[in-house]
C-alpha cells in the first residue's frame, strides 16, 4: 500500500529506473523531433516533475514519446536554422494553449472520437513511418554503423526479453558510448552525436517565425493537443489499479498543458505518454508520485553535468533504440483481434494506418475518425429490430410476418438503437409488416423503448404514421420501458404504459413458453 516502507523503497528503485529510461528516450526521441538531446531532457524533466505533481494518474509517465516526437519532427520539417528551434518552441507552446483552452471549456468528449481501431491504426502507422526512417539511417552510413545499429537492436530486444525490469535502451546506449570513445568509431566514419547538444537552463521564446510560420503550426498543434490528451487518458484508464485516486479528465488538460508549457519555455518539445515507460515504472515498484519526482530531480542533475559525456554516442545506436521503440507502437495482437472479432474494426485500423503513412498524421487521424463516424452512422441506420420470443428466458428474435409471437393479444417489439431520420423508415416498415400480417389475435404492439432515444421530427412522423396504420387494423401501438425524457417527449400523442404493466406483459411470454 502507498505510504509503507516497502512502497517507499519501491518508489526509490522505480525512480532510478525511470531516470535511466527517460535519459535514453530523451536522447533517442529528440532526433525524431529534429531537436537537440538537451531538448529531449527538458521534455523529460517537465513530464517527470510537472505531471507527477499535477496529474490525476499515478501510473502514466509523461515525457518524450516516440509517436508524438515523430509528429513534432514532421510538423517542423519545413523550418531551418534558427527558425527550427523557434518552430519547435512555438508548436509546443501552442499545444499547451490548446490543452488549457480545452480544460477551461471543460470538453469531455474528445476521447470518444478515437475508438480503439483508429488509435491502434494511428500508432501502427507512426511506428511503420519511424521504422522506415530509422532503417534508412542504419543502412546509409557504412558497414560498421550498420553492425552497431543491428547489435543495438538485438541488445535491447534481448534485455527486454530476459530482464524486463532493466532499462535496456539506457544500458545499450551507455555501452555504445563507452565503446565509441574507446575504439574511436568516429575516426572510422561512424556518425556520432558530437557537440550539437543544446543548452540547458535558459528560457527560450519563439521569435522570427512570422505570421505564416505560426499559421503553419496551428493545425499540427491542435492535432498534437488532441492526441496527447487522448493517449494519456487511454493509458491512465488502462493502467489504473484498485485503490488509486479517481481519474480527473478535465483536470488532466491543465496538467498536460503545464508539461508542454514548461517544456516549450525551456527549449523542449511536446510531451506525451509512453506506455512502455509507464509499464517499466510499475514493474520496478512505482506506487506513488515520488518515483516520477525523483526521476525528474535526477534528470535535472543529468542535464547540468553529464550530458556532454554522450558526444561519442553513435547515431546508429540511437537509430537501433528508436527502431525497437517503433516496433512497440505496432500492436499486431490488437490488429489480429480486430480481424477476428469484428472485421470492420480491422478495416478501419488498416485504413488509418495506411493514411498515416501516405498522408501524414493529421490526414491519417482525420481519415480514421471519419471512417469510424461513418461506420457508427451506418450501424445507426441499420439497427437490429426484433420481437420477444416464446422461449424460456428473455430472448428477442427477428421479426417474421408469418409467425408473430403473440401472447394474450400482445406483441413485444424492440428497436435496437436511437430512432432518428436515418432509420425511421425501418420502424415504419416493420409496423407495415405487422399490420399486413392480419393476425387475428393481435390487439397491441408494445414497443420496448429502452434504447429508442428521443425521436427527431422525421422519426416522430414515422411513429405517427405507424400508429395510424396499426389503428386501422384494430391494433394499438404502445410504448413501455421508456426513460423519463422519452416519456415526456411522447406523452400526449402516444400511449405509454408504466413499468409494472410492461413487466407484466413480458412475464406473459415467459409463462407461455
Biggest β-sheet, characterized? 6 strands, mixed
> How many separate domains make up the residues?
2
> Which regions contain 5 or more consecutive residues with pLDDT less than 50?
1-5
Sum up the overall morphology in one term: elongated
Strand proportion, as a percent range, falls in 5-15%
Radius of gyration based on Cα positions: 29 Å
Annotation keywords:
64% helix, 19 helices, two-stranded antiparallel sheet, 6% strand, Transcription Regulator spoIIAA, mainly alpha, disordered N terminus, six-stranded mixed sheet
Describe the structure.
There is one protein chain. With 513 residues, the chain is mainly alpha-helical. It has 2 domains: 5-329, no CATH class; 385-512, STAS domain (Transcription Regulator spoIIAA, 2-Layer Sandwich), CATH 3.30.750. It is 64% helix and 6% strand. The strands form 2 sheets. The protein has a 6-stranded mixed beta sheet with strand order 4-3-5-6-7-8. A two-stranded antiparallel sheet has the order 1-2. Helix 17 links the parallel strand 6 (444-448) and strand 7 (476-480). It is elongated, with a radius of gyration of 29 Å. Residues 1-5 have low confidence and may be disordered.
Give a nutshell description of this structure.
This protein is mainly α and 513 residues long.
Topology record:
Blueprint: H1 5-32, H2 37-54, E1 62-63, H3 66-75, H4 82-105, H5 116-139, H6 143-162, H7 168-183, H8 210-239, H9 249-265, E2 272-273, H10 275-284, H11 290-305, H12 315-329, H13 332-341, H14 343-359, H15 361-381, E3 385-388, E4 396-398, E5 410-415, H16 424-436, E6 444-448, H17 457-472, E7 476-480, H18 484-490, E8 495-496, H19 499-512
Parallel strand pairs: 5-6, 6-7, 7-8
Antiparallel strand pairs: 1-2, 3-4, 3-5
